[in-house]
Amino acid sequence: MTSVPDVTREGKGRARPGPSSSAPARSRPQPQSIPAGGWTGAALGFLVVLVATAASSVLGTQAHQHSSPAAMAVLAAAGAFVGVLMSVGLPRVAASTPAEWLLPAIAGVGGFAVAPWLVMAHRYTDAPPGTEVLFFSVVSWGGMLAVALAVTSRQWLSRAGGALLALAAAAAVLGNWERPSSFSPLVRYAREELYMLLAGALWVALVLALAWAARRGSLRVSAVAAALGGLAGAGLLAGVALSRQAIAVADLTGPGAIGYGIAVCFSVAGTMMALRAQRPEAVAAAYVLVPIGVSLIAIVEWAVGPLGPQPMVLEPMIAGGVIGVLAAGIAWGTGRHRLTLPSAGPADGGSAAAGSVMASASAPARGSRATVALRALATVVALGSVAVAVVALTRPTMTGAVNGLRTDGTQLRAVFDLYGYEVAGPWLALALGLVALGMAIERSAIRDLWLRALAGLAAAGAWWTAAATPLRTLTSFIPSDVQVDYGSEFSRIDFSGDPTVWAIAAVAGAAGAIALTLAGGLMAGSRSDGT
Amino acid sequence: MRRTLTLLMVAVLMVTAVSLTTGCERKVTVLTGEIVLCTAGEIIEDNTEEVEVPASQVSEYGVTTRVITCDEHGDLAAAYAAAQKAIAEGDLVTARERLRTVLDRDPTYGNAADQLAEIDAGRRPAVDSGSADAGTGGTGDTGGSGDTGGGTVPSDDPGDTPQGPVVSLVKWVPDTIEGYVAQGILADLASLSRQYIPLADSADQLMIEVQQHVNAEAAVAAQTAIAGQYPDSTTSRTIGGKTVMAGVKGGFAAGVFIDGPITVTVELHATSGSGSALIDAVFDVVTKITR
For residue A429, is pLDDT > 90? Predict the structure, then answer.
């Protein structure tokens, strides 16, 4: 709550006109007694979701080749059901309104059954590439959830910028898993990848529904309803598949498939832990950071000895990972998201979470003219940074050189430009610009400001190393018989080029704006401290 | 809701801006034309040019290769064939004269050197039954038919030995390089490559790539271009009279040198970390293959 309830005259008549300040609280459903766990629960949930989602992604890649989409959906739904029971248990009281179980059940059908089915139904033996599947069936889902959460946040712009920064950083990590990379989003398998995004929308709807339920104190009832909905949906999918002889018992019993189901179970359990702690952003952060978690497998490989040439381009990949972690800190490491309850009135109503209270309470005072001027200057510089970054997205940024042998014996040698939107650097620059702009126009506590400013500046510092990561190796115009042989003796593609002046200016502007905002915040803070 | 709309509006504006500025069809620079190769391995004509075309038309362009036997090598083939005929008839004097004629112009031609050595030693050499092919050469066209026209069809069989024009490049990828285990040769019409497995732990792959160019100037340009692909820790060293330009890119270290119209690239990949520690190893390999 953002204001202290007036309890002095409760039950004694109205002391002043207008609605009672405690009315919204009284009209809200009373929470069931599920221990939230606070930061510890959120952190644990984050870790569980991160590890389990990485595992489900890897195991799903292995298992879908020997199973069927319907069987994978059944295993996912069953795993989700067990995960819900593990984390929140069975409800002790019945749902007080249909909204507590009906909407989550419908969302559960979509998020726990249809979503995994959509993903698996649009994967082929070795396509789309694993990097793209990871991006569109995990990272993008986290990004969508992050944006949905950012919309209801006081610091919506900087959080949205942080989410974009995390997405771009994840793309930079995936784009450096190998070179030439198979990571070329929305080029060869655009249709399949759009279906995966649709699946992500269903999953986001489910998480939001459960997050709302957690805020209303009905997580237990709603989560079990969603899990049952998932089972019902998966049963329906299995029935349809059975009628078409598209599912067999063996599809459900393979070790990879069972492992996938177990991984989904823990992923859902971790999600519930984060939701109980009312930190849905921990789920978004974990999903966006999964590529970094999977990349850590390289460390295991090094520990047990090299298993052949190490394909990862380490320096930019590590830089992308660092930026991703910093982005998570910017977007979700400070303050707290607020979710608007359907029955709680306006978004800025009296249900602001504790972090926002703290943010408001300790936010720097608006202060002197100098402080205001610094903030205004930071806003102008950040706006310029965003504008320049948009220009950078449209400018030729890198050069791709193809040299390959076609099946008819003809040699193909082609050189083409990659525009900024096909390279990681300009996206990272745009995200940094949005973060800077958000920080300049939003109010936050000094401590938060410090942390986010340092993270933003550090991300800007790591930007150069990750910037020249091409995000489009495969194209629609290079003949496929050449592209399929990239990396072999018959065909190669080389990229060259450094970040453009536009992108450099955008990052420099973002860093400058962040520094100006921090300076302004510090001046205001010192004044409000009476120094 | 207002924020959602704002976010959506910003996204739409961005997509519109990007589409407007990059929406026009992308241009791609492609090399197109024909390269004429001699069966002896030399590029006789390079009728290629770079043209800028709309991206949608890239697949219509490419470089075709035609293989013929040039006049000079046609004369050599005739002299070599006459030498074989003389050997078969037991006329070693004539055979010796013809073989000398061949070797004066091309010391590596066929079995001429071995046959002359045997004649000088008082023995009668065996007739090179493949000389007829070598003499007549032939023509081929890679454009559209898939006929490589005397070139070697790429193969990854370690036992394969390249034939045709690229045979003259084989000397740069010897079967034995101390400290490395050779794999099969992969050959194209005017280039070949060979992978070696290093015995040392510091590297996990050695690749040598040899390319024939139309002339020495083209080779020099190619050397500069290839060296530019390894932009870090650049250095150069003269080995066996050849300037080796070396550099590093990520885990790769490479050195490139020219021999007339030929570029030779030696590339090592580090087992872990940067390839900069492998520069000396690259120079060492160059020293071994240029002896």
Answer: yes
